[in-house]
Amino acid sequence: MTNKNKPTIVWFQAITCNGNTHSLLSANSARLELFLNSFNLIYHPSLTIDKSLEDILSQKEKIDYLLVEGAISSNSDIFALSNDNTNNILNKLASKSNHIIAVGSCAAYGGIHAKFEQHKDVSGIKDNIKHKTLKNLKHEIINLNGCPVHPEWILQTLFTLEAYGKIQIDDEGRPIELYSTLAHHGCTRNEYFEWKIEGAFGEKEGCLFYDQGCRGPMTKSSCNKILWNDVSSKTRAGMPCIGCTESDFPRSNMLETKKNIGIPLEVPLGISKRAYLSITGIAKTFKIDRLNKKLMDNK
């Protein structure tokens, strides 16, 4: 099959740290090869050389999949490309595209750039694309939240769209298959969570929810089921989940658990605070020697 017969992909980088590009390059090698054999990546500012951004903007051919990495702004003082601002370039590309995918939390909601940029004119792609363009897309904009997004989520979304023409998404535009479970599901520290045995940053054992700010029990993400590099995740490596797939990311003081009289201000999704306090109160009365010994042995 020649390249012209493959669905085309344009990867547009706006206001970004390039983290999602690095993530894509860390994909499973067999999956990445299948991706490159199945799609024609006609433009990426770091990975392709045949066409410039100006070439893509001037072409008449439609773009099958526009993948956007980074936040958007109409302020050229913040970030400019091709003597234009990222808002205008995004709309020019979007008007040529059949599908648009926000790759990462900055593209979806503005992310870190929206929170810390002093001009306050930074947001996600959906807030910047013209309504007429949105109506002409073959699918609603898909948000692949994450900082960075898991590489397999990118590939799985593209393969699903190409095979079926649609993908089920939640109220925030995230693929349900990838974002319907919690980061807490599949976490190897769950027994420590159940018995309220806290660990510390970098330790192999212990829960990171009660003191370290872990957001796993309230973050929709499959990163403890679809492992990074096929072997690990933040919590498995001893880092608290920072909730980067949620629209309120980033939060202040992410690596600490906010409490009131020793009780976490936010409790896991799907349980009332009263029920949570009852369950944890009972759990705290038990001393699980096996788990405490394991925690101490691994320090």
UniProtKB/TrEMBL annotation:
Q: Residues in domain Cytochrome-c3 hydrogenase C-terminal?
A: 179-253
Q: What Gene3D superfamilies would the database entry show?
A: Cytochrome-c3 hydrogenase, C-terminal domain, NADH:ubiquinone oxidoreductase-like, 20kDa subunit
Task: Give the location in the cell.
Answer: Cell envelope
List the molecular function annotations (GO) for this entry: 3 iron, 4 sulfur cluster binding; 4 iron, 4 sulfur cluster binding; electron transfer activity; ferredoxin hydrogenase activity; metal ion binding
- GO terms of biological process kind: anaerobic respiration
Can you state the subunit structure given in the record? Heterodimer of a large and a small subunit.
Protein name per its UniProtKB record: Ni/Fe hydrogenase
Origin organism is: Poseidonibacter ostreae
